[in-house]
Amino acid sequence: MNKAQYSGERDCEPEIYEIRFQGHLHKRRVELFENLTITRESDGTTTLIGPLPDQTALHSVLLRIRNMNLKLISVRQFEPSPEDSPNAKWQENGGQTEQVEKEK
């Protein structure tokens, strides 16, 4: 067994996540999710999409959501570059963080 198999290490490619929760973030809270695209949905939910380097980073984001007393709706993981994933918008934006207001 090689070191990577034993230690549980994987390749260094970040995983793409979509995290959805009830409510909208106040503008001053947006900086807490600086590497993720933030979309304010018309149904009163918020979607975060973007790469997270490891499980520690994912749990950090989830803890921030919990600490703001926001109700977590879903967490989805995507393959690194699927063309049909919600990550397409993030990739088209060059990986830049943005806050998007969806129209009804």
Mean pLDDT equals: 79
Give the CA-based shape: globular
- Helix count? 3
Question: Span between N and C termini?
Answer: 54 Å
> Helix coverage percent of residues?
10-25%
Please state roughly what percent of the residues sit in beta strands, choosing from under 5%, 5-15%, 15-25%, 25-35%, 35-45% or over 45%: 25-35%
Rg, alpha carbons? 15 Å
Largest sheet: 5 strands, mixed
Helix-strand sequence: HEEEHEHE
Decide which structural class fits the backbone: alpha+beta
Which ranges are low-confidence, i.e. pLDDT below 50, for 5 or more consecutive residues?
1-7
Number of domains: 1
Strand sequence of the main sheet, in spatial order? 4-1-3-2-5
Q: What's the β-strand tally?
A: 5
Structure description:
With 104 residues, the chain is α+β, with helices and mostly antiparallel strands. It has one domain (25-78, 85-104). The protein is built from 3 helices and 5 strands, in the order αβββαβαβ. It has helices at 3-7, 55-67, 87-92; strands at 15-22, 37-40, 45-52, 72-78, 99-101. The chain has a 5-stranded mixed sheet, covered by helices on one side.
Quick tags:
104 residues; alpha+beta; 5-stranded mixed beta sheet; 3 helices; 5 strands; globular; disordered N terminus
Could you give the topology of this structure?
Elements: H1 3-7, E1 15-22, E2 37-40, E3 45-52, H2 55-67, E4 72-78, H3 87-92, E5 99-101
Parallel strand pairs: 2-5
Antiparallel strand pairs: 1-3, 1-4, 2-3
Condensed summary:
23% of the residues lie in helices and 29% in strands. The protein is α+β, with helices and mostly antiparallel strands. The chain has one domain.
